[in-house]
Design a protein that fits this description.
The protein has 27 helices and 19 strands. Strand 18 and strand 19 form a beta hairpin. By secondary structure, the protein is of the alpha+beta class. The chain has a six-stranded mixed β-sheet, sandwiched between helices. A five-stranded antiparallel β-sheet has the order 1-2-3-4-5, sandwiched between helices.
Length: 606
């Protein structure tokens, strides 16, 4: 069994995984795809866009995004979408497809992946240790009492693997030393902190209730620790590391993702406690940001699962202001947004305790309002509607919100409501609203209409500006595309050009192609991409494979391409000689200038 460059995983397993995991099925679980000729198109899950530039090629079993350059085969897609290393992705896909295998002997995992695996292992064991200390020791009793008081039963504590970090400096330090973990590595992974005098390490989390944070596929990548009693900070998160990126992580996504797909909706919350309480209340499609403001990356991540989001932030001023800020970020990612209203400044956890699970699900989540309705409610809080001045000022602010809407029907619905609230005729409000819209249309940038910018304005950006490549560069790409689909073409190029490509990445890909066919493998671009094991080369090869391969006499095409490629170094040399001749002439060395002139003539003859 050969293991090649594949992190100790046999080639046979990789091939079986690719055979069992069709690219359209794999991507289709995360991205809504529509057929366009021989391609499938959708919105890219890796960056925010409104015009589909994400392309799947079923006959070649690859994906490529013209907007951000992401590309590869089904394994690469799972690596990117679930934040997995190559061996992790293959193992996971093999398990899902019921493909039995053992790790190859001798190949070994790349050092970078070994470090990643050790950090994941350390986080796994840390979570188990904290969970054990919470449930089975004297140390954990105060933490357990705190959790019980907040309504956390054993089932929830086990399901979310909640634990306790004792108020000591060296619980984890000793734990890792006994198990021969590299303490410097553990500090890099965010589990330890180095002492100020540089003499060693201490535990990062002390005297805190611990909430493990998992990636999309359920691996623990970080922790959030809530202090017991008074003290600052109230919540302490793991620092950013190779495993953990706050702006790309959503708490509980691993558990919630199937419910999100089923409901066709995601509930976005602010805190871990809220998510756990809502899970217990039967609202199991909720997630939270990691103690950080919502980012475009969060929105893109959500967009891979659903098109509708309900923002369920705290009912206090800060929560409502944060909800208001989140709306444009989610709408920019192409999502439908609703807002859940929590009365009396309560947070979701408090609401559930006060009014019960059923009312939370039916009134708060199912009763979530449109963003326009929410903006009007938000504006209204600043005015006293019992006074005429208050009514007039509120009407003006409300009209600004309603005038943004592109749909006349929607505008009419809200204008009718406003008319009743402020006691002004519908006709008067309509006239004011139309005047505002005229002003808006004069000041609005072209391509925007209503409360969202039109998709057209973004399409060029998403597709990337097409640049005309130099002839030799285009020729090299064309050769590689032909070699990848035809072993005889690869043999011809190997004999007539070898590794004399002008672009280093192209030369590297060519040498991989020669090695691939030397093992007697048939042309299969998806299998070939897995043999590269280099992110940059994978992206380059995938973008090349999006080209249409020429028909007709392929030998003639190969010869023309090789000629272009060989010509380039000579053209470069000619340019350098001409520049040198000009310099020498300026310095007055006419004898050397004549010598260079004859060298130029000889080069031109070649």
């Amino acid at each position: 069994m050969s293991t090649g460059h594949n992190g100790g995983i046999p080639d046979e397993v990789i091939e079986a995984v690719l055979q069992h995991n069709d690219i359209v099925d794999t991507v289709g679980k995360y991205v809504h795809l529509t057929k366009q000729g021989k391609y499938m198109k959708g919105l890219c899950p890796f960056h925010s866009e409104k015009t589909p530039s994400f392309t799947v090629t079923p006959d070649r079993q690859i994906f490529y995004c013209y907007g951000c350059g992401a590309g590869g085969n089904a394994i690469k897609f799972r690596m990117e979408i679930d934040g997995l290393s190559f061996p992790e992705a293959v193992k996971l896909m093999a398990e899902e497809s019921h493909i039995p295998f053992q790790d190859g002997k001798g190949g070994g995992v790349a050092p970078r992946d070994q470090e990643l695996e050790r950090l994941l292992q350390a986080h796994e064991w840390t979570a188990k240790l904290f969970h054990y200390l919470l449930k089975n020791t004297e140390h954990g009793k105060p933490a357990m009492e705190y959790l019980r008081a907040r309504g956390f039963g054993d089932k929830l504590i086990d399901q979310f693997q909640i634990g306790y970090a004792p108020d000591r400096w060296d619980t984890l330090v000793q734990f890792f030393e006994k198990r021969s973990f590299d303490l410097k590595e553990m500090e890099k992974g965010g589990l330890l902190s180095s002492k100020q005098d540089g003499s060693g390490y201490v535990d990062r989390f002390r005297g805190r209730v611990m909430f493990p944070i998992m990636n999309r596929s359920g691996r623990i990548i970080a922790f959030a620790g809530r202090i017991l009693g008074e003290g600052q900070p109230k919540y302490l998160n793991s620092p950013e590391s190779r495993l953990f990126n706050k702006s790309r992580t959503l708490y509980n996504l691993n558990l919630a993702k199937s419910a999100i797909r089923k409901q066709g909706q995601l509930v976005l919350m602010e805190g871990f406690g809220d998510v756990i309480a809502s899970w217990d209340a039967g609202v199991q499609h909720s997630v939270a940001t990691m103690g950080t403001a919502l980012t475009e990356n969060h929105a893109s991540l959500m967009r891979t699962l659903t098109e509708e989001v309900v923002i369920c932030y705290d009912g206090d001023n800060a929560g409502q202001a944060a909800a208001l800020k989140s709306i444009p970020i989610l709408e920019e990612a192409g999502m439908r947004v609703k807002i859940a209203l929590l009365q009396n400044g309560l947070d979701p956890d408090e609401y559930i305790k006060t009014y019960g699970a059923e009312r939370f699900a039916s009134q708060v989540i199912d009763g979530a309002v449109s963003t326009t309705k929410f903006r009007l409610i938000y504006v209204k809080r600043n005015y006293n509607l019992l006074e005429e001045d208050g009514k007039a000022s509120y009407a003006q602010e409300a009209l600004k919100v309603i005038a943004q809407l592109s749909s006349p029907t929607e505008r009419e619905v809200y204008l009718r409501e406003l008319s009743t609230e402020v006691g002004v005729s519908l006709e008067s409000l309509k006239q004011d609203c139309n005047l505002m819209r005229q002003t808006l249309n004069r000041t609005r940038p072209q391509g925007q209409n209503g409360n969202r910018s039109s998709t057209g304005s973004n399409s060029r950006k998403a597709q990337g500006t097409p640049t005309l490549l130099p002839a030799y560069h285009a020729a090299e790409r064309r050769l590689i595309a032909m070699m990848l689909q035809d072993a005889e073409a690869a043999t011809y190029v190997s004999e007539h050009l070898g590794d004399a490509f002008n672009i280093a990445d192209h030369a590297a890909i060519a040498s991989y192609i020669y090695a691939y066919y030397a093992q007697g493998k048939p042309p299969d671009v998806s299998r070939f991409i897995s043999s590269l094991q280099d992110d940059r080369l994978e992206k380059t090869a995938t973008s090349i494979l999006m080209m249409d391969t020429p028909h007709g006499d392929s030998t003639q095409v190969l010869q023309d391409c090789i000629q272009q490629i060989k010509k380039f170094p000579q053209q470069k040399q000619l340019e350098q000689k001409r520049e040198e001749m000009l310099r020498v002439e300026k310095s007055g060395d006419f004898l050397r200038a004549a010598q260079i002139a004859s060298e130029i003539i000889a080069l031109e003859r070649q």
